[in-house]
Structures are given as C-alpha cells and as structure tokens.
Amino acid sequence: MAFIICEPCIDIKDAACVDVCPVDCIHPRKDEPAFATVDMLYIHPDECIDCGACVPACPVAAIFALDETPHKWSAFIDKNRSYFDE
Description:
Blueprint: E1 3-5, H1 16-20, E2 26-27, E3 42-43, H2 54-57, E4 63-65, H3 75-85
C-alpha cells in the first residue's frame, strides 16, 4: 500500500510532506526542474515505505493511504502512478 496525494494539493505544493519523508519518495522537490511546471506533488508508489509521516505534515489534508482515498478523488491514484510512468 502506498499513499496518494489528491486534489487539495493542486496549485498549493506546500512541500512540508517532502521535508518529513524519510525516503524522499515525494516529487518533484523544490530543487527539481519539474517543480515549476507541475500543479501538484506526487508520491512514488514503489519507493513509498508506507510510514505515513507525510499525512499529518500536509497542511491541506491532501494525502491518504491508498485504501482510504476518498472515492471522489480515486482518479488521483492513477494520476500519481502515471506521473512516474512517463
């Protein structure tokens, strides 16, 4: 199980979640070129260790465990994975 970043992150990209992630699986970071061009952050599904540290760090409550992702934001599951498939 991985964690998913959903709609509340769009145009926010606070990056507090990036700062607390022990395995650096949330991208793009502020020092990556893609940070300026994407509208939200993404969690790499294969690198995430399911620690959950990012959930309370998110100021807009945009991060959910895969199996707890609200139905209205279920499309973000594929959106997160697709970001890393490109």
